[in-house]
Every structure is written in C-alpha cells, then in structure tokens.
Write a structure and sequence with these properties.
By secondary structure, the chain is an alpha+beta fold. It folds into 2 domains: 2-210, no CATH class; 354-547, no CATH class. It has helices at residues 2-19, 23-26, 50-69, 85-88, 155-162, 168-196, 198-227, 279-294, 327-348, 405-411, 519-527, 533-539, and strands spanning 31-37, 42-45, 79-82, 94-103, 106-116, 145-149, 152-153, 231-240, 246-255, 260-263, 308-311, 363-368, 371-376, 414-421, 437-443, 448-453, 474-478, 484-487, 490-495, 500-504. Strands 2-1-5-4-3-6-7 form a 7-stranded antiparallel sheet, sandwiched between helices. The protein has a 5-stranded antiparallel sheet with strand order 14-15-20-17-18. Strand 12 and strand 13 (371-376) form a beta hairpin. Helix 3 crosses helix 8 (279-294), helix 6 (168-196) crosses helix 7 and helix 8 (279-294) runs parallel beside helix 9 (327-348). The chain starts with a helix and ends in an 8-residue tail after the last helix. The relative contact order is 0.11. The model has no long low-confidence stretch (mean pLDDT 96).
Amino acid sequence: MKYATIAVAEEMGVALRNTALSPNIRDRQDFSCAAATAKGEVVAQAEHIPVHLGSLYVGVTNLLRHLESRGIELEPGDVVVTNDPYIAGTHLNDVMALKPVYRSGELIGYVVCKAHHVDVGGSTPGSISVDASSLLEEGLVLPPVKLVERGKLREDVLAIVQSNVRTPRYARGDLLAQVAALNVGEKRLLELAEKVGTEALEGAWEEALRYVERYARKRLIELEEKFSARGAYEAEDFVELSSGYPARIRALVELRGGSINIDFSGSHPQVPEPLNAVYGVTVAATTFAVKAVVDPEMPMNHGFYRVVSVDAPVGSIVNPLPPAPVAGGNVETAQRIVDVVLKALSKALPGRVPAASCGTMTNVLLGGKGWVYYETVACGSGARPFGDGVDGVHTHMTNTLNTPVEVVERETPLLFVAYELRPDSGGAGRYRGGLGITRAFKVLEDGVTLVVYSERHLLRPWGLAGGKEGAPSDHFVVKRDGSIVRLGAKARVTLSRGDLVVINTPGGGGYGNPCERAREAVLRDLAEGKVSRERVAADYCQEDQLS
C-alpha cells in the first residue's frame, strides 16, 4: 500500500505535466504531487521538487486549520487553491491545490499538488522582484478559495486570477492541469480503497508513517554511536542582500539520541526585500539536508517530522512576519539553509557530507509584449568524500529539468548562442567540485525586461577537508553597441533587440587536499577542457608532470 500510494503521486505528476501549458511546468516540470491522510499527514510523495515537498508538511496543516477556523467544509468534488506563502509555505508563484477524497461519504484522505506559475502579477515579469518591500508588490495573493465546488469549475475565481497576471492563457491552462492531476489522484486512491477496504488502507498508511519514524530514529542512533556524535553542532553562512551586505543564517543542530532539533536562533532579522524564507521553506530545506545525510534512500513521509524538529525565530529571515516579501527566500535562502545545516552536520558526521554546491538556483526572468519566461540555470554540485561533484546539475532544493532551447525559441523572442559547461569553475580538491554552466542568449525585440535573482556572487561555495572554493556567479549583458553591463547577484535591466545576456553559474566546492588528486583525474579534466593548465599548476601541485 505504501508503494501503491507513492505510485498515485507519481501518476498525478504525469497528468500534470502532460496537460500543463507553460514551459515551466510542462517542460521544466516545476511541480510536486503528494497524498495525505484524513488528518492531513503527507503519507506519500513523488520524487519532484524538494522545496515543494518539504513545505507540504506545513502547507497542508496550515490550509486545513485556516478552513476550519472559518467554518469552511470541503465536500466531495471540491478543490481549494491558495498561493499565500504564509499558508501554503513557499512563495506566490507556487499555487497549492488540494482535494478531499471521500468514499461512501467518509473522508479517507487528500490529494495535493504545487506548481510554479510563470507569472502571478506584481511589479516584475515573472513575479520575482529584486526590490519588492512587501508581499503585495510581488503579485496576486490568493487566499484559500474553492476553484472547483462540488465538481463545478468556478469561472469567477479563474477570471480573478487571469485578470491579474501577464500570461492569462498559461494561468488558466496550468490551474486546470492541477485540477486534472488531483482528479487522477482521487480516482486512484478510491481504486485502492475499493481493492482492500478503507480500514485496511488507512491502517497501511498509519503503519507507513510509523515505519519511517522508527527507521529514522534507528539510523540516527546508529550514526550517533558510530561517530560519538550526540550533542550540539553550530554553523553559519550568509545570503547576499541586494546592497551586497551579508545576512547571517545560523543553525544549531542538536542530536538527541534518536531525534534531531535544528535551531536558527541568531539568524538575521527579516529584511525589506524578497530574501525572507517563510517557515515552510525553512522546514523543507532543513529536513532535506538532514535526510540527505542520515539516509538519502529512506522513504519520506510525515513520520520523518516526528523525529526532526525545526525552531526558527518569528520575525527572522527564516520565519518572517507578513507582509514581508518572500519570493527570493523560496529559491535562494532555501539553498543557503541547506548549506548551513550541511556544514553543521559535517562536524558531527565527518565523511558523510559533501562540500557546498553552487548555493543558488540562478533565477532568470524575462518579459516583453504579451510573454513571460522563467527558468533556473543548473550549476556545479559540491565534491563528495568519495568522488567529484556533478557538472551542470540542479542541486538541493530544486529538481527541475532545463528548458530545451528549441522550446524557448518557439515560445519567446530569444535566440540561444551558448549552453555549455564553465571551465575552471569547480573548486579544486582531491575530488573536484562540479562545473557551473554558461548559458547565453540574444533578445530579438526591444523593451524586454530582464531580472536575474541569484546568489554566490560575492561569497563563494565552500570546500571541505582542505578543498578549495568553487567559482562565484558572473552575469553580464553585451549591448548591441559592444559595451558590457555587469550584473550583480540581483539585477533588473531593460534590454533592446540584439543585446546578449550571458549567465555564468557557480561551481561546487572541492573536497580534500588538491595535491592528493590522482594524476589520471587531472589529465582527464585537462583533456576534456574542464580545467586549464594554469589552474592545474596553481591548484594541483602537478606542474612538473604536465609538460
């Protein structure tokens, strides 16, 4: 029953992908699907987006509590949607949709999905702004509302959404795709209940939750004993505010004999710009990091949250009060939370934690006459205790695909001229950090707005065990007159026809002493163009062997 329910979540994802209209959902697959018990405990999830999935623990709980407090009942055939980050747990672009599943008049569970809509209004195309000081500047805030009521689509709700976004066709198509996915999930859960009976299905779900709880406690105790790790371990890292000022994220990770608590006291207060991460994002990033280190292969459901607890000070950058803007916190601060928790765990469990990955999703947003485009660009993952980092891959809290060049050029007035690995971007070490990516394109019309929202521009991804830092991000625009406009980590510019945008993402940190890297590995990197002879001479102590 556990795996059958996971399969339900996976099939929901297939339905959502196949019926969505926007490239961001249809091609990049920026969505997530799950099933929950009648209590709202997520019992099964597909392998989709970590920041979505981890936040569902908070989002589903908040949504059901919100509905109960207002006396709103979910009836058979209803679908409720919201994008309020302080309820759903991520940011405005992520619309969460939930449907109750009834059998013979009895509520047996819920199916739920989140999908990143390419635009939800606000001051910037794509709705991830550089300078928003309030949530209201980031776009339409949709409180929990029934999009489908007793099986009937509410066109009035759709009209409100479509009237407040730059891409109404995508908004309508993607919302209906989410409804389709929930309908598939409902159908499959009812088939399971019909096959084994409601009581047996609910019993199997509860056992699946208890199993994950038991398993996680057992693994934690094993690791604590193996590494003599019971105790508290602290680490800090920083995100870069739009001014360039670093904002601290501090974590105290305490292993307690079969449970683990992460306390973010000492983190920077919330800021009047979009780098704030709502509590759901902080929970998602923290539990992702813990699970990755404790046991990346273990199943994941609500049982894990009975073992891991997260304390985040209210009013801080990792748990802001509304109406603080949060669009960037979901995509960027989430990555830094992972880095901080991993760094703390590297002290408790040495040899089980990689060096820092690129630490950014590198959000690229463009908008012009009647169109909006959004993507995140891959980067280098951190080198591991046993091998090199991975080149050109989405890391940690994102798990999307790239958008194929052919799709982008068909849908938007953009022409791609480069898409390649970025040499010398991986941190040196016994094991090299993964390489970042260079992605470059020309705009083919005037008056195009470009927003780049990224990180690791000033503060590089760190290495471990003597490994060196990865290269920072480096973005710029080559104007059609040949002049170059350097872009910071967070920038907004207006482009003209013929302007060339170049995005260079960071590499991962290295692991171990670079002088201990195998000569064969260095020669292979040279032959493949991943490192230059100058970097080999400077970092790998092998200049005399390369003549």
